[in-house]
């Protein structure tokens, strides 16, 4: 450089020296790397912000564990830290060795580290050279005790057999490193190959299913439980002449075969083969023996975990039946996602049951708990429900019998452990595929939701009783609703609703948004509902980014085919009519509030909030009039027709009383008598229609008038005079 020229930027200088920069904040778990550091890690050469898991996947497991110890030591001594790391590709192969020097600081309040350092590639010493023989990884000078500590930590963290083998393949032992590994297991009286490293695919074929009485080192190790060390090809050939030809073509110079022993039982053998002569000194044998013991323990844990996983997966498959045959005119989709804990089954279930009357039943439920007992009770309860339903009982009778059954199972014994007393929530729907009628009985379970043909989603409150198993004499009233062509019903367990910090209200809002915005078929909708809660299902993720589910999820979707749904061949067309129906019994005045909420949900996108408030007020007056001045139950029918901005809302309340309302002139202090006056004032049209048995009172509001603030009735549009009854 000429005098007076500006110095180049630090990044440019480091890039010219093939040195990258990185910064790690353990509080956020994020690692920032520049373009050169990213290239050395095998990533695109551009500045990136990575998660700890992404960086860890690029480094050898032993080296990753070592970094934490070096950082702590550097902070404690107030010095710079230096590490050597092996950088691996996606297949777990070491592609380069890097050296990093860094400065680390510790934040006592956050209890986290800030680390900034450099990274550059270095040359790996050749195994067998003086530098290689005194190193653990590269020329990293560490004691055998440090190596064994790191190896034990890495093997202890391995969760599967494949991960254990990957860690074992990457172990670079102090002073000697094998370039060929094989792990043998035992099945009956034969050896099997569990895994290998440093060999080509297919090389293991001659050694698979070898009889234990074969003259082969691994077979002898399994038979005797004693290690075999072969320092040269001559020793191998002299001691095992029959099987020497199988090993000769690998061109190795030394071999160590060690027993894999757990709790006094030899479960297999571990072979470490070397491309250079190894004397197998006492120190070297000690290291190999210790590694073999740790490897055996890790494989035993992985085998137990995988066996338990296979068992629970099989249990899950057996307890969750596939949906039955196709139903003419209807489609059904279901999903079950177990909790993210160790046990992959729980108390949630769903079922579809053919009934003797040609209908079918959809059942969804949740037994308290996520353990083996919950899974066992779930299986028994599901079988009982199928039996009661197959006998032809109505929904209320099915749940009553199921509740009595579960109570006898869990509360029937005086010696029962209180921690084992369980209950279950359940929703039982009897479906008539011809008419779309749904008879619903509910036992402490979340209500169903209906996605209407125009995409509007309504939660449908239904009558219900106590959860199953609490009271053997509990009643379960039945609610009847109609699933119109093109509509979809969702029933689910609370795991879909109250997960991720949501309560019942906010959880339903999230689900409603998915249902309203999704235009795909029923299977895609089921996937979207589950993935919106937890993302794509992954049962083997570990570490800080692991997918931790808070509760099991069971979902059932039922679609009555027609325009506006994605369950048939019909192209989805948003119709211009939406409606809802709800009954309010004399004994259930609290359902007036439910009816008001129903109407608000039906009018969720109405252009005038004032008109919505008016409609809710008038509906409340009409329902209250029926409950107060008659002995009949009320039936609400509300519908919206037309295109947005020019729609008509019609609300109709029907009862079986023949008494017709009439207008009154209440005084200032009167508490009733203003119903018809309000309708005249607020409705665009209204009327009273006598029926064959009873009457119907209705009103209409027009969205186009709401924009101008217009209101008031044009006069009664129905027939019949206002005589007979008070109108509250």
TrEMBL record:
Pfam families for the chain: GAF_2 (PF13185), HATPase_c_2 (PF13581), SpoIIE (PF07228)
Class in the EC hierarchy, top level: hydrolase
Annotated InterPro entries: Bact_Sigma-Reg (IPR052016), GAF (IPR003018), GAF-like_dom_sf (IPR029016), HATPase_C_sf (IPR036890), HATPase_dom (IPR003594), PAS-like_dom_sf (IPR035965), PPM-type-like_dom_sf (IPR036457), PPM-type_phosphatase-like_dom (IPR001932)
Occurrences of domain PPM-type phosphatase (ranges): 327-560
UniProt KW Metal-binding keyword: yes
SMART domains per UniProt: PP2C_SIG (SM00331)
Molecular function GO terms recorded: ATP binding; kinase activity; metal ion binding; protein serine/threonine phosphatase activity
Keywords: ATP-binding, Hydrolase, Kinase, Magnesium, Manganese, Metal-binding, Nucleotide-binding, Phosphoprotein, Protein phosphatase, Transferase
Stretches the record annotates as Disordered: 708-728
Catalytic activity, as annotated: O-phospho-L-seryl-[protein] + H2O = L-seryl-[protein] + phosphate
E.C. numbers: 3.1.3.16
Functional note: Primarily acts as an independent SigF regulator that is sensitive to the osmosensory signal, mediating the cross talk of PknD with the SigF regulon. Possesses both phosphatase and kinase activities. The kinase domain functions as a classic anti-sigma factor-like kinase to phosphorylate the anti-anti-sigma factor domain at the canonical regulatory site, and the phosphatase domain antagonizes this activity.
Descriptive protein name: protein-serine/threonine phosphatase
Native organism: Streptomyces curacoi
């Amino acid at each position: 450089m000429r005098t007076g020229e500006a110095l180049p930027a630090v990044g440019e200088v480091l890039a010219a020296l093939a040195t990258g920069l990185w910064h790690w904040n353990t509080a956020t778990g994020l690692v920032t790397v520049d373009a050169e550091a990213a290239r050395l890690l095998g990533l695109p050469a551009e500045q990136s912000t990575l998660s700890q898991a992404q960086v860890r996947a690029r480094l050898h497991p032993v080296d990753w564990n070592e970094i934490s110890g070096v950082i702590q030591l550097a902070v404690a001594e107030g010095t710079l830290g230096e590490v050597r790391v092996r950088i691996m590709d996606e297949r777990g192969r070491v592609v380069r060795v890097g050296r990093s020097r860094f400065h680390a600081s510790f934040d006592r309040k956050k209890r986290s580290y800030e680390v900034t350092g450099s990274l550059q590639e270095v040359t790996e010493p050749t195994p067998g050279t003086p530098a290689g023989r005194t190193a653990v990884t590269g020329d990293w000078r560490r004691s055998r005790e440090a190596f064994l500590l790191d190896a034990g930590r890495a093997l202890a963290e391995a969760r599967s057999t494949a991960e254990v083998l990957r860690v074992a393949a990457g172990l670079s032992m102090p002073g000697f490193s094998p370039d060929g590994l094989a792990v043998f297991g035992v099945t009956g009286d034969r050896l099997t190959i569990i895994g290998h490293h440093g060999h080509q695919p297919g090389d293991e074929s001659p050694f698979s299913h070898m009889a234990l009485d074969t003259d082969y080192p691994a077979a002898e190790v399994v038979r005797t439980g004693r290690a075999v060390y072969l320092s040269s090809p001559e020793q191998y050939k002299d001691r095992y002449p029959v099987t020497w030809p199988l090993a000769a073509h690998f061109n190795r110079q030394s071999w160590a075969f060690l027993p894999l022993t757990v709790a006094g039982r030899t479960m297999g053998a571990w072979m470490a083969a070397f491309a250079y002569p190894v004397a197998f000194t006492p120190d070297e044998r000690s290291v190999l023996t210790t590694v073999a013991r740790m490897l055996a323990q890790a494989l035993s844990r992985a085998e137990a975990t995988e066996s338990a996983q296979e068992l629970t997966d099989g249990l899950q498959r057996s307890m969750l039946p596939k949906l039955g045959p196709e139903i003419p005119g209807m489609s059904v989709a279901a999903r079950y996602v177990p909790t993210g804990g160790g046990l992959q089954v729980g108390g949630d279930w769903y079922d579809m049951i053919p009934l003797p009357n040609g209908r079918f039943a959809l059942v969804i439920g949740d037994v308290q708990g996520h353990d083996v007992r919950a899974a066992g009770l779930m299986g028994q309860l599901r079988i009982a429900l199928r039996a009661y339903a197959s006998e032809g009982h109505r929904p209320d009778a099915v749940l009553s019998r199921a509740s009595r059954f579960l109570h006898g199972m869990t509360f029937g014994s005086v010696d029962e452990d209180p921690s084992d007393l369980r209950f279950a929530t359940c929703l039982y729907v009897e479906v008539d595929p011809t008419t779309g009628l749904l008879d619903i009985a509910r036992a402490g379970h979340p209500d169903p939701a209906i996605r209407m043909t125009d995409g509007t989603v309504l939660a449908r409150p239904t009558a219900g009783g106590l959860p199953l198993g609490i009271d053997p004499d509990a009643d379960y009233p039945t609610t009847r609703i109609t699933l119109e062509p093109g509509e979809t019903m969702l029933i689910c367990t609370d795991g879909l609703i109250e997960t991720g910090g949501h309560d019942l209200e906010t959880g339903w809002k999230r689900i409603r948004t998915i249902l309203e915005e999704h235009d795909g078929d029923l299977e895609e909708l089921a996937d979207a509902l589950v993935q919106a809660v937890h993302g794509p299902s992954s049962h083997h993720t570990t570490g800080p980014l692991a997918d931790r589910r808070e509760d099991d999820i069971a979902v059932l979707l039922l679609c009555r085919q027609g325009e506006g749904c994605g369950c048939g061949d019909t192209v989805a067309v948003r119709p211009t009519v939406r409606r809802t129906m709800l009954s309010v019994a004399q004994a259930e005045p609290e359902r007036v509030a439910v009816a008001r909420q129903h109407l608000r949900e039906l009018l969720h996108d109405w252009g005038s909030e004032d008109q919505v408030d008016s409609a809710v007020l008038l509906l409340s007056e009409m329902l209250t009039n029926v409950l107060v001045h008659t002995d009949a139950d009320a039936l609400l029918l509300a519908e919206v027709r037309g295109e947005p901005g020019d729609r008509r809302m019609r609300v109709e309340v029907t009862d079986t009383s023949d008494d017709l309302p009439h207008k009154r002139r209440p005084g200032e202090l009167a508490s009733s008598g203003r119903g018809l006056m309000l309708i005249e004032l607020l409705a665009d049209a209204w009327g009273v229609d006598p029926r064959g048995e009873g009457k119907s009172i209705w009103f209409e509001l027009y969205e186009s008038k709401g924009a101008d603030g217009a209101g008031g009735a044009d006069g009664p549009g129905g027939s019949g005079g206002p005589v007979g009854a008070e109108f509250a």
